[in-house]
Structures are given as C-alpha cells and as structure tokens.
C-alpha cells in the first residue's frame, strides 16, 4: 500500500499538552511531506477494558475529535473499536495490519508510554523497531512535566474531581470543558431572578467536585460570562447562569468551560439566604472576569 499519511498514535483522553505535542508532530511532518495528518485512537479507554475498572473520560469522544481537528491540525481521526478482538491482537499484527496496512503510514508519532497489542506487549521501542524496518519515520515524545509533576490524564482527572479546574486547565492547555443540550429543570433560579440553563454532565465523563464555578458558556455561537453549579446525584447536572443572556435556550447545545472553583455545596435555611449567596457568587465571578 502507498504510504500516504503521518499518524499520531494514542488514546488522547483530554488531549492534554503532552498529547498535543504528539499530534502536532504528526501534523508538522505531514505538512512538510505532503501527507495527510491522521490521529489513530480508540472508541473507549483501553485501560478500562483491560483492567475491568471504570476509567472516567476527561473529554467526550466528540470533544476529543473536535480539539484534534481545531487545535492540533489533524485532518482525519480514525477511531478503532477497542473490543476483545483488538485487545487480544498480537502487537506485530497491529503494526502490520493497521499502521502499515490500513493506514499506509509514512510517519508515526507516539508518547514514550504508548502501549498496544495483547497484554500491552507493544511499546515505543517496538514501534521504533518496526518503523525502521519498514522505512517509516518515527518520533517518540518523551515524558513532559509541569508544576513539579508528570502531565498525565490520571493527574488531570484527580484535579478535576477535587475541584482544582485551574491546575487541570494548565495541564490540558485549555479549560476543562463539556457540552450538552439544555433541558428543563425545577425553574427555581428563574423564580429567584437568576435563570439557569441546565445541561446533564455527559455519562462517562469525570465528575467535577460539586459546587459553584466561574465559567464561560458557548450559547448560540457566542461565549458568555457565567457562573454554574455542578450538582451530583442520580443525574449530575450543570446549572449555568449566564450574565448577558436572557433568551430561551431550551433544546440548544451549550458548551461550558469551568474556569475557577468558588465554593462547595451548601444548604440554605431560606430562599432569601440562597438569593444573597447567589448575588455574592455573581460578584465574585464578575470581579474575576474584570481582573482579566
């Protein structure tokens, strides 16, 4: 098969700064060698299927693809179904049938800890060996560190769960984000004078700490300054109050970026006490935006 693409290999959950280096390496090589920049990923976490332990995602599959297109310069994303067949595939067969055969890769980029094949037998060294034997250029991106620790999806998930979305965003290279359709809630906010747009936190996504956040919301094509409340429970919700949007958003898809944790969940003795606290939260958020 004719070699026609520069391939970035990995799961790329979160598409964090280390992932971006792998993806952009493939995009640069493709641009300088008249090749198509391609990312090869999986439809679910390989770790979850191999270990049987649920691994929440940092990005929905849709957001992962969008970021790779918009920010890394990847033209095509090949999403392989990570089922038992792929899990048990011999590492050499994976390289021969998929990387060389289906893709026709002229270049491969991967992280230093990239694993593939049955029992994770394939590693960066085997990938380099295979590429050298088949005339494929190869780049292995070394471990990247920031703020005294390794940039990794595990570290980012832990930060999000703890509410430290600022540090998570620093490692991601962008704010932690998710999208959803605006659904009907209890309309309590509207009754109290601060209407909210309610979106469900996508199933399978890492759940941020419950509480109030400063955020931005992309509504009807425009970014709006906002505060939101992330509520846990049977159906985790993100309740967004945008400062400069008063339209009917029901049925719209809204993207929210969590920028800063303000406070944890709290019970209030009265609606008046709740209203005072919301006014305080709004002031904190507006002061934060003004300072920037």
Descriptors for this entry?
292 residues, alpha/beta, Rossmann fold, Elongation Factor Tu (Ef-tu), domain 3, 2 domains, six-stranded antiparallel beta sheet, five-stranded parallel beta sheet
What does this structure look like?
The protein is an alpha/beta fold and 292 residues long. It has helices spanning 17-33, 46-51, 61-72, 84-87, 91-102, 124-133, 153-162, 165-172, 188-192, 271-290; strands spanning 5-9, 36-42, 76-80, 105-111, 137-141, 145-146, 149-150, 176-181, 197-200, 211-219, 222-231, 237-242, 253-264. The protein folds into 2 domains: 5-149, Rossmann fold (3-Layer(aba) Sandwich); 175-290, Elongation Factor Tu (Ef-tu), domain 3. The chain is elongated. The mean pLDDT is 92.
Query: How much of the sequence is in beta strands?
Result: 25-35%
Number of strands: 13
The CATH class of the largest domain is identified as Alpha Beta
Characterize the biggest β-sheet. 6 strands, antiparallel
Count of discrete domains: 2
Helix count equals 10
Task: Give, in order, the helices and strands.
Answer: EHEHHEHHEHEEEHHEHEEEEEH
Summarize the structure.
Helix content is about 35%, strand content about 25%.
Secondary structure blueprint with pairings:
Elements: E1 5-9, H1 17-33, E2 36-42, H2 46-51, H3 61-72, E3 76-80, H4 84-87, H5 91-102, E4 105-111, H6 124-133, E5 137-141, E6 145-146, E7 149-150, H7 153-162, H8 165-172, E8 176-181, H9 188-192, E9 197-200, E10 211-219, E11 222-231, E12 237-242, E13 253-264, H10 271-290
Parallel strand pairs: 1-2, 1-4, 2-3, 4-5
Antiparallel strand pairs: 6-7, 8-13, 9-12, 10-11, 10-13, 11-12
């Amino acid at each position: 098969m004719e070699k026609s693409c520069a391939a970035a290999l990995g799961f790329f959950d979160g598409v964090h700064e280390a992932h971006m280096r792998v993806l952009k390496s493939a995009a640069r090589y493709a641009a300088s060698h008249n090749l198509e920049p391609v990312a090869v990923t999986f439809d679910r976490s390989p770790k979850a299927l191999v270990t049987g332990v649920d691994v929440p995602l940092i990005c929905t599959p849709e957001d992962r693809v969008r970021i790779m297109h918009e920010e890394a310069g990847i033209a095509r994303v090949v999403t392989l179904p990570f089922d038992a067949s792929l899990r048990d595939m011999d590492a050499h067969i994976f390289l021969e049938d998929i990387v060389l055969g289906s893709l026709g890769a002229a270049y491969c980029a991967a992280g230093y800890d990239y694993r593939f094949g049955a029992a994770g037998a394939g590693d960066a060294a085997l990938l380099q060996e295979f590429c050298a034997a088949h005339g494929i250029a190869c780049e292995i991106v070394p471990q990247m560190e920031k703020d005294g620790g390794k940039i990794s999806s595990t570290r980012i998930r832990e930060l999000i769960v703890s509410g430290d979305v600022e540090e998570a965003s620093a490692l991601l290279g962008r704010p932690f984000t998710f999208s959803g359709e605006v659904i009907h809630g209890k309309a309590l906010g509207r009754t109290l004078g601060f209407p909210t747009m309610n979106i469900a936190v996508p199933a399978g996504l890492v759940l941020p700490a419950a509480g109030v956040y400063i955020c931005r919301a992309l509504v009807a094509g425009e970014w709006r300054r906002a505060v939101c409340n992330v509520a846990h429970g049977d159906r985790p919700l993100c309740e967004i109050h945008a400062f400069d949007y008063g339209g009917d958003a029901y049925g719209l898809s809204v993207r929210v970026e969590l920028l800063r944790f303000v406070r944890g969940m709290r019970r209030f003795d009265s609606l008046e006490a709740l209203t005072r606290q919301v006014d305080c939260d709004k002031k904190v958020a507006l002061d934060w935006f003004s300072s920037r």
